[in-house]
Input
Amino acid sequence: MKYYGGCDVGSTYTKAVILDETGKMVANTTIRSKINSEQSAIMAMKEVVDQVPELNSSEDLAYLIGTGYGRNKVPFADENISEISCHAMGVHVTDPNVRAIIDIGGQDVKGISIDTDGTVKNFAMNDKCSAGTGRFFEAMANAFELSLPEFSNLSLSAKNVIPITAQCTVFAESEVITLVGEGKPTDEIAAGIEMAVAKRCFVMAKKAGATDSITLTGGCAKNEGLKQAIEHVLKLKVINLKTDPQLMGALGAAEYARQKGMAKAAG
Output
């Protein structure tokens, strides 16, 4: 049996996946990224390789593809592919019916339209401001002195929404701290934060060609409050993926590795 790997080195988290010849995921991991992208890739790949008894190191993989922010730093990678293409392919092999993605990364937000074969039809990206990204949510959770999972569910109990007007992470954090200090209901403030991010996703979703449904990828896809806000603002159904949405980039990279590796062996 041959194995194929994908390593997605993100600005916040590094993910790695190993597939067998049939496309079955046999190993995966998600770790916090280090300052050094190569070190992040080495650590993540060691963790997944250790989960497969037949493998001793990344060099034993038939094909390995790097993707993400630090895709050029993945040791032993045969090539690298953009995270946009890899997220599209990862979602495609998880659910072939999905045609549109909003990928909320640590430092940017992308809208991606997927063709019937898993390739990218169109995409749009906001990387000018961190508001609405994973780092933004971390800052908001810190302002509430909550963990990210706790913050993600906070807005679900809100009866009303307190709008957050600031468009910048720094100013938004100050606005939230002021509202908390004034004794405003924390769940209603959180609902305002989720709504503000959902509105930022609106343009990305339209550029991605979303018509009736969309799926979310990246760590923020696990944010239940954000899912609810996106469905409300975009008037689209958010499709929940059966595989961890944070792994989509690494899964897509591993699937590309499998296709390329098998084609190379056949040729």
Notes: The first strand starts at residue 3 and ends at 9. Helices lie at 37-49, 83-94, 134-144, 148-154, 169-181, 186-207, 224-234, 248-266. The domain at 3-88+246-266 is CATH 3.30.420.40 (Nucleotidyltransferase; domain 5). Residues 101 and 215 are 5 Å apart (CA to CA).
